[in-house]
Amino acid sequence: MGQAKPPIGFAPAFGDGFEPAESPTMSDVTDQDLADRLRTAGVSLTLQRLVIARVLLSRPVHLTADQVWGRAREIMPEISRATVYNTLDLFERSALLRRLIIDSEKVVFDSNTAPHHHLYDASTGEVVDIAPGELRVIGMPSLPPGMELEDVDVVVRVRRREG
Ligand SMILES: [Zn+2]
Question: How far apart are the CA of 91 and the centre of ligand 1, in A?
């Protein structure tokens, strides 16, 4: 049965060749941890949601919806794009994720929901967190009447120097 696909499992067993650093989707976070996080956020558990939580919530990541879909399919090949998109909306509404709009064509889902700023590399499309304290916003405009401040997030855009 060497050709059989491994079963879709919440906690796959890895052989000696397993290298955690090489895997985009695995970490020390157990599926039980992820299931608890979903339940705490009021999200009822399905296998698909757990797979997507595995992709996004087991470590800090910034992924586009299609990147999430690609990684989810590595775990569950039959998962549909619509399921992934609907689940991303659900996770965002449940405060498990933040949707970070870089520009009209680039939206990433951020599993770090604490307030923080980002560095965006326009050459590679990569989005990374700026370390806490490395960038501080000084001063704030007066807010329109009846408004309260929700969030301030800064995207520092960089690109490779030419030559
Ligand atoms: Zn971030």
Answer: 16
